[in-house]
């Protein structure tokens, strides 16, 4: 099969979840004899035209000049280039800035779209932007031949709202098996004597709720907040909690070895995400043997089941901080590690995608 992957900033991954998946899956496809192309931004750090057998097509992305609007232009440039090739399948990862151009997609290839999360529910967006994103979601559903949902919750949502079937395929993670306690020295930390949050600093990730719970608890254990805090909401959080020295805003950390070790040696790992499907950072926390305290919603519960503690408000965070210790919950941690090994490993995820592609091609031949 000749397959194109668009909707990311490109490979190898230098940004986020969809980029990580695109890297793993495209290489997997190439290793299995398929001709695969991934679209990269023109200013991606990797400027070669091939990567581990994958063809890379660089297209101009003006986001660095004009902000979010540049994503729409980048996707347009990618879609116009699609028309020059004869692909069998076009895999769209997300729809936010591409579905408005759906009428320009070539007619012959199958369009398969991973619908990601409920972008239009993100509170960081104005009401007008939320309406635009909901419209983009509708366009993506109508213009795709097949849909992929990366959580049971998203699959149910698509069925209920649009009467559209989708295939559930989760995200993947790699087990972290080589901890290095010396890395903690750079952060002046001791194993199991700190808690942490790793997330984009956005309201729907419930960071403020978690930190309110920390304040209520009077707990002096260091609480690490990892994520870019040079944003409006990040500035607000830093100002609100500046008198609490145990709350430490570390900014974004992109060194995966450091992140894995911080997760592994943390006492409690808070996951406050409340919008969307299978969050990559949640699976990575499971793979790093973290004890997870998650926001109670259908997306998180579908992945964690009974192998985590849950909160809805600051008072519940306060109670959990006072009574939960990692060393008392080793079975929950092991259950999550087993889930990564057996269900959410990359080979399984990649094979599910490939089998779906084959089945879709067979239906349309």
Keywords:
single chain; about 375 residues; alpha/beta; eight-stranded mixed sheet; globular
Could you provide a short overview of the structure?
With 365 residues, this protein is α/β, with parallel strands linked by helices. It has helices spanning 17-31, 63-66, 69-82, 127-143, 152-162, 207-217, 232-240, 256-265, 280-287, 298-304, 314-323, 330-342, 346-363; strands at residues 2-6, 35-41, 50-51, 54-59, 89-93, 110-114, 146-149, 167-168, 195-198, 223-226, 247-251, 269-271, 292-295, 309-311.
Query: Uncertain spans, ≥5 residues at pLDDT below 50?
Result: none
Give the SSE order as H and E letters: EHEEEHHEEHEHEEHEHEHEHEHEHHH
Q: What is the average of the pLDDT values?
A: 92
Distance between the termini: 13 Å
Give me the Rg, rounded. 21 Å
> Could you describe the largest sheet, including whether it forms a barrel?
8 strands, mixed
Oligomer: single chain
What order do the strands of the largest sheet run in, or round the barrel if closed? 3-4-2-1-5-6-7-8
Strand content: 15-25%
The tally of strands reads 14
Structural class based on helices, strands and sheet pairing: alpha/beta
Number of helices: 13
As a percent range, the share of helical residues equals 40-55%
What characteristic shape results from the CA principal axes? globular
